[in-house]
Amino acid sequence: MPGYSTRTLLVHVGGHAFRLRVLSDLQQFSDPDGHGERLGISSAQWSLFGQLWPAGRLLAQAMATANVDGKRILEVGCGIGLASLVLQQRGAEIVASDIHPLAEPFLAYNSALNALDSVHYRQMDWDLPLETLGRFDMIIASDVLYERGHAALLADVVERHAQAAAEVVVSDPGRGNSAPFSRHLASLGFSVTESREALEGEPDIPHGRLLHYRRDERATSVTAP
User: In this structure, how many other beta carbons lie within 10 angstroms of the beta carbon of residue 181?
Assistant: First the structure.
């Protein structure tokens, strides 16, 4: 990619090998037209989307075995998009989203790198409603609760885009903001189960928690104003 140094990773998820083009390190930055700055992405945050983080691998592992039959799925803050690639490989109906202007070309490149059709992508700012996106049976995300205000913002995304009966799956490395997010989702009728998870090939090293929220149609009728 022009202006960037990249490298290719080989990652195994659910018995399949995925090749990923990622940024070489956290020092990569190029925003010549100021697009990222206008979106509120600072130079310190710029390269974060282009890394494969442990929480992203945990979410991808969960999606390798999740029941996705007949479900429309949204990945929020997809970054490099490994979980979306896993779902695309499984034939799921997946839409990936992020605010970063380079997330889409990186995801398209990595789809091709793995001989997959391009994952459907929508740029999303959590502050702004995106009515044409529609509603989903499952919403997934990894390590998106790294600032205090993100809990309420992500809950708003869930409220706008989750079906009456829906699941939300979040892999969280433990940054301290999952409790307010869980409270927000409880007010929307979701219950939560939590499990500690390790990465494939590293069974003795916990890498975070998997938060699995569920809501049925009866819960939405109870919580509706």
Answer: 24
